[in-house]
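The following block was generated as part of the benchmark described in Methods. Ligand: 2-hydroxyethylsulfonic acid.
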Amino acid sequence: MLSLKNKIVFITGASAGIGAACATEFAKVGANLILSARRKEKVDELADKLRAEYGIKTLAFKLDVKDKAEIKAVIDAIPVEWKSIDILLNNAGLGRGLNKVYEDDPENWEEMIETNVKGLLHVTRNIVPGMVLRGTGHVINLGSIAGHMAYPGGGVYCATKHAVKAISDSMRMELVDKNVRVSSVDPGMVETEFSVVRFGGDEERAKNVYKGVDPLTAEDIADAVMFVATRKPHVNINEMIIMPSVQANAFVTHRR
Ligand code: 8X3
């Protein structure tokens, strides 16, 4: 197992859910963390907690990955002793609505494409050249079962996650001789704020998504991310599809 002690890990969407759970697991093994999210108070709070509990170093930034100027400004402003980022966890992402393409509000499409695809691309474009120069690095993208199967009502969300898969696959080929690994972790149902956000704050509808199911938790995904991140240097997990035991794929779920 690869030691991550004193490695530098950059996480987007670190304020809650899978991002925050991953930050916690990386902190436990002694990695130093650059945490970013739209909600600055939340990442500040998490950074303070992880520093106090695990004696690691942290940097916290407000970052909306939809804003490419902000991405560049934040990454340019990283102090020199933090510049050698070892692991980039492209976690920021969201679903908006579960509507038919021909009926949907195009604003939902804009937000998902801007965040899940363009945001991931701009963050990657600003960080990976440093990894290439240093001859070491690992990019871990948060994909989804939606990147492997499209489902009704998910036209654009599934398209963004198919895009994440394509970007991961292309980059893995582009970086094969650069000692920079590219992995993706692709979950099915995970109970986080995801469904509340997808349904515009409708808690009842969000709860129903997981009704009668033991869904995955953010911690389950952090566990998978840590497995991917701690393989020996000659091993790469290209992609990992991780599902609740009662969910076979995007269509078949056994509910109690
Ligand atoms: C979220 C999982 O099944 O709602 O990426 O698309 S799903």
